Amino acid sequence: MKIDVSRVVFFLILRIYCVTAWGFIGHELVGALAQELLLPSTLETVMNLLPVNERPLSKAATWADRVKSKQAYKWSQPLHYINTNDDPPRYCNVDFSTDCTQNCAIKAIINATDILSNSKETKLRRQESLLMLIHIVGDLHQPFHVLGLGEGGNSVKGTFGGNKFSMHQIWDTMLLDKRLKLIGKSDYLDVLKSKIAIELSYAATCAPEDNAVHALITDTKTSLLACFTDYLKQYFRYMFSHNYICPFKWAYEVNQYHCTDGTLNFTQGEDLSLDYYDRHIEAIERFIILAGVRLAGILNQIL
Ligand SMILES: [Zn+2]
Questions:
Q1: What are the residues whose beta carbons fall under 8 Å from the beta carbon of 135, sequence distance 6 or more?
Q2: How far, in Å, from the CA of 136 to the mean position of ligand 1?
Q3: What is the residue-wise DSSP string for 214-250?
Q4: What is the pLDDT of residue 55?
Q5: Membrane-spanning regions, if any (predicted)?
Q6: pLDDT tens column, 287-303
């Protein structure tokens, strides 16, 4: 399959500059990148499942955040993160047995994948699972959704461009927004494309021996999500013994970056739009690209 993100990303960036609310940019990028990597048949299935007013994927990617405060969806709020028990430098880890006793982003991805891949489920349940999956894969790659520090970054404030924000806001939005404005549309497209090329060989890997990208590129739906299938079949046995179950691996990687690399390591009063931005912006973009490719990998495999 020929991978060309330029058209979709160009459209997306035009749209991003029209977005007035904070917080959606990362998810919109993940959705747009994933859509560009879908197989034609998968794309058709996805579009048929998505409500008309939630298309394309860049729009669908924000649905779960838009509904989570509504009474009917309050149950879904714990699905957006996983509460890890981090205490750096002594302890940084994602432990499913203690961090996800009720519900969490990892369990949400597994459950949504299970429902979505079952054609006997109702269209409504599959539709909401698709909307949830598109969003939660993004959340699992965004900072403070897999980090047990500072109440998800909401209780810790930082200065950015002279104004105070929560660290959650700064990581979800401000740093990436600065990137978009600084680089400019056409150069930003080049940055994204080159990063996709670099990450493709790694991004959707479920287990060391799998090569999800190969499946994406060659149109062959091979064993991309074999680990998901194994997991669903052998839930409890795998839970504690298998280090390479996809969402576990993804969550662990994000947690390690933010917990051990000092996401909260800055001087009070320091403007985080300067050196701090330089230190972390590459990681933000990398996780967005990883999320987009991994989401496409899941959908290509199960739909
Ligand atoms: Zn969310």
A1: 27, 60, 61, 62, 63, 64, 65, 80
A2: 6
A3: HHHHH----STTHHHHHHHHTHHHHHHH-TT-HHHHH
A4: 96
A5: 7-25
A6: 888 888 788 878 877 78
Question: How far, in Å, from the CA of 263 to the mean position of ligand 1?
Answer: 19
Q: How far is the CA of 195 from the centre of ligand 1 (A)?
A: 24
Q: Low-confidence residues of the chain, pLDDT below 70?
A: 1-23, 184-194, 196-246, 261-262
Ligand 1 centroid–CA 137 distance in Å is 9
Rounded to the nearest angstrom, the distance between the alpha carbon of 66 and the centre of ligand 1 is 9
Task: For residue 163, report the distance from its CA to the centre of ligand 1, in Å.
Answer: 24
Cα(98) to ligand 1 centroid in Å equals 21
Expressed in angstroms and rounded, the spacing between residue 209 Cα and the centre of ligand 1 is 31
Torsion angle, alpha carbons of 46, 82, 104, 288, to 10: 0
Residue 57 DSSP symbol: H
* Tokens matching residue 65: 């955040």
> How far apart, in Å, do the first and last CA atoms of the chain sit?
17
**16 within 8 A of 180, measured Cβ to Cβ:** yes
Both tokens of 1, joined, read: 């399959």
**Can you give the pLDDT at residue 193?**
61
Q: What angle do CA 179, 61, 250 make, to 5 degrees?
A: 75
Question: In this predicted structure, what is the pLDDT of residue 59?
Answer: 94
**pLDDT value of position 177:** 87
Q: Which CATH superfamily is domain 6-302 in?
A: P1 Nuclease (1.10.575.10)
Q: Is the pTM of the predicted complex or chain greater than 0.85? A: no
Q: What letter would DSSP give residue 288?
A: H
Q: Which two tokens stand for residue 142?
A: 């965004």
